[in-house]
Design brief:
single chain, 171 residues, mainly alpha
Length: 171
């Protein structure tokens, strides 16, 4: 029942995530020189691997975006997007922990217009969680915390979406 109610939300969320990925890929393609520098300075990619890493990053973003819009490949796209955003999150966290917030992370359209901060970390983490929600195999078997969150988002009460007795976290 919850899964049926959430399908429109999951579809919209999947489309939004695909658009974010396409936008990120377009920025990388338009600002190639800047992004090559970001890969070296921010991500720590050795100079000889910067161009292949750039091509791979763009390809992964576009492949994940493409996969997200087709129901048959949506879970693969969501998993790929979640993994990608978790990688970005770890790089942002590394920059913050090493006290290098001034480094250009490539997160924005304009070079170095804002330093790395907690909001960028929150943004990439939120995108990763959103992708994980889209990719969850069966929303009716989601952990209780995720179900409670989805109930709030869907505007339902707990009684109308009671877990069945076969739920793995329920005795």
């Amino acid at each position: 029942m919850l899964a049926d109610m959430m399908q429109p939300l999951v579809g919209a969320l999947s489309t939004m995530l695909a658009l974010v990925l396409v936008h990120a890929a377009v920025i990388k393609l338009r600002q190639r020189a800047r992004m090559l520098g970001v890969l070296h300075e921010f991500a720590g990619v050795p100079p000889r691997w910067v161009k292949p890493a750039y091509a791979i990053a763009v390809a992964i973003e576009l492949a994940a975006a493409s996969a997200l819009v087709w129901p048959s490949t949506q879970r693969i796209g969501a998993g790929t997007a979640a993994a990608l955003w978790l990688c970005y999150t770890s790089l942002l966290l590394r920059a913050l922990l090493r006290d290098r917030p001034e480094v250009d992370c490539g997160c924005d359209s304009a070079a170095g217009d804002r330093p790395v901060d907690g909001m960028k970390l929150l943004r990439t983490t939120t995108l990763a969680v959103a992708a994980a929600i889209v990719g969850w195999p069966n929303l009716s078997t989601a952990p209780l915390g995720l179900q409670a969150f989805l109930n709030i988002v869907a505007g339902t009460d707990r009684k109308s979406t009671r877990l069945n007795s076969s739920h793995p976290y329920r005795s």
